[in-house]
Specification:
102 residues, mainly beta, Glucose Permease (Domain IIA), 3-stranded antiparallel β-sheet, two-stranded antiparallel sheet, PTS_EIIA_1_perm
């Protein structure tokens, strides 16, 4: 699922984990300004593939929070173990969390 204003994206892993990645807080009000989708609804994506480009300064200049929650939306089927100490910046290829089927 790709939100029309491009501030959030939902993906489902091959194992069935449903994730919501929400860039910033209250960024829906930017109406897509500063965001560019790099994938389309229904695309199959791979590890390391870029999904969305965004301009962090647009978010900051609007006075909005830049933290980006990553949420397992089917928590009835999976639990998450956070890896590392947060807040921090995650680089491509690094684990953010490990999901385990309940």
């Amino acid at each position: 699922m790709l939100f029309p204003t491009k501030y959030a994206i939902g993906i489902v892993s091959d194992e069935g984990v449903e994730l919501l990645i929400h860039i910033g807080m209250d960024t829906v009000g930017l109406d897509g300004k500063g965001f560019e989708s790099l994938v389309a609804q229904g695309d199959h994506v791979t590890v390391g593939q870029k999904l969305i480009c965004f301009d962090m300064d647009v978010i900051k200049d609007a006075g909005l929070v830049t933290e980006t929650p990553v949420i397992i939306t089917n928590q009835d089927a999976y639990t998450a173990t956070i890896t590392g100490t947060y807040p921090t910046t995650i680089q491509a290829g690094e684990d953010l969390m490990v999901a385990t089927r309940i």
